[in-house]
């Protein structure tokens, strides 16, 4: 009875095209932001931040980025891990070369550098599509990891070949390094998540988003109505890589602190983010969040029930966890191939009629 | 409309037909050894409805593809609005003011009807990536301005009730109409319609014919169309080009074409003895 659009008339195109046209959704969204900003920082502890919230927030940015490319513009990419590595190494080099600049700008700049790299590796998309493009981006993945492993300049000639983050603060509060507070890192990431979601929403609702979707749905028709495939595809690669780069920079500097490139940004990372958007929903902002939450929370949840609740051995639980997560992915794809976002939409449609569906 | 043109005239139903807006000069198009179009010349005048007809495989769609920049002819020149058109990509042709529909509908299935029609105005939307990322301000203003124009076309084609429906869910006849709407949204100088009535029943054909006439009448849009339904072609068009086996066999008003012996032979067949 609460969830109604009846009587909620729109009298301008502006009202009609807002993000949450139904009042109930709008209120729910504001409440969510308020909780995330005001409540969570006070109740958060290290476990929640490190096991759940930070990875969720950072992966949500990466998923948003990949969703721009794959979900909106229809270009499959398996190079996400490599592009995250670019963001991470860019932020490392920037932080160590310009220690006086605020880390906030370093992370944005890292995104910019990743955007350039992404455009470079997006060039093949002008000639090839589908599976073949996926293979081409796979080359990017392996090349970038190899590059960061083999060229010592990228890790400042450190003996271990690892990069580790220097301590940095925003407004005098430490956000990187070993002595950070959970709430500070959480809020720092949250700012980036909020900005990313807002920007992606803005881009996809306007003419840029339509260009991307036109290329995705039918590239020949897109060209005939005046979409330049070169700029449309490359802008998708640039925007996508920007967010993936920001996610990589945060993953390294705020979440992990020290990184060995093959381990942190290997091919499994590319698949993980790809699974997130497939399970969450291609071409949906909500889907990016839902997918990230699913892939981050499910293993934690399973581990807690199996090891904590049932008292199983850790290694047994870890193996079973793989199988269950895999099974759940299959289950979701069979039940709803368009992802959690589509399930959510169906639920909302039902809710609009509830409790009198006829 | 260019009223000064020396050879403009007024039709029986009171429309002014202006000077030549597009001229095809000696177009020849080959695919390997196959000659799809052989040395064809014809013109399209401002404000007229120009039909291209011919049996299957005559090269009509190839001709349309040459006009819209998909195919590059090996020989011949395309003149548009008094200038010779250099070789162009299809998206550049679109920004010159040529819009088209396809024989097999080419809509964007994943987008709503409104979004599909809005894509027709992409060539006119100029805000950059950064101001779009900020949205509030220029991007939003531009969006709402174009939305207003698109709504006029939605009203015109009577598809208000399906505005927000994903295109993939629509029946065939409506999809054709949405495709026409998308082409119209670009405010084209020249509108190309590739078999706008293929696969339609009589009622849908009548609706579509009415829309085509209305478009021509109200917006003064020049239209070139390919159609197989002879009744429709003869009723709608001001002048007709007839093609057969890649060659032009007739050109003139519907009445002239109807009496042309070569055309009759092409359509009815000719006795070989």
Automatic annotation (TrEMBL), chain A:
Q: Which residues cross the membrane?
A: 27-44, 50-69, 104-123, 130-148, 183-200, 236-259, 271-302, 322-344
Question: What Gene Ontology cellular component terms go with this record?
Answer: plasma membrane
InterPro entries, per this entry? Answer: ABC_transp_permease, LivM-like
Q: Per UniProt, which keywords does this protein have?
A: Cell membrane, Membrane, Transmembrane, Transmembrane helix
Instruction: Indicate yes or no for the key word Transmembrane.
Output: yes
Q: Topology versus the membrane, per the UniProt entry? A: Multi-pass membrane protein
Where in or outside the cell it occurs: the entry states: Cell membrane
Tell me which Pfam families the record gives. BPD_transp_2
- UniProt cross-references to PANTHER family, sorted A to Z: ABC TRANSPORTER PERMEASE PROTEIN, HIGH-AFFINITY BRANCHED-CHAIN AMINO ACID TRANSPORT SYSTEM PERMEASE
Protein name as it appears in the record: ABC branched amino acid transporter family, inner membrane subunit
Native source species: Maritimibacter alkaliphilus HTCC2654
From TrEMBL, chain B:
Provide the Gene Ontology terms for cellular component: plasma membrane
Q: Which CDD domains match?
A: ABC_Mj1267_LivG_branched (cd03219)
Say yes or no: keyword Cell division present.
no
| InterPro entries from the UniProt entry | AAA+_ATPase (IPR003593), ABC_AA/LPS_Transport (IPR051120), ABC_transporter-like_ATP-bd (IPR003439), BCA_ABC_TP_C (IPR032823), P-loop_NTPase (IPR027417)
Q: Which residues form the ABC transporter domain?
A: 22-270
**Which Gene3D superfamilies does the UniProt entry name for this protein?**
P-loop containing nucleotide triphosphate hydrolases
Keyword Repeat set for record: no
Which spans of this chain does the record mark as coiled coil? none
Give the molecular function GO annotations. Answer: ATP binding; ATP hydrolysis activity
What keywords were assigned to this record? ATP-binding, Nucleotide-binding, Transport
* PANTHER family (alphabetical): ABC TRANSPORTER ATP-BINDING PROTEIN, CONSERVED COMPONENT OF ABC TRANSPORTER FOR NATURAL AMINO ACIDS-RELATED
**Protein name per UniProt:** Branched-chain amino acid ABC transporter, ATP-binding protein
Organism field:
Maritimibacter alkaliphilus HTCC2654
Lineage, highest ranks first: Bacteria, Pseudomonadati, Pseudomonadota, Alphaproteobacteria, Rhodobacterales
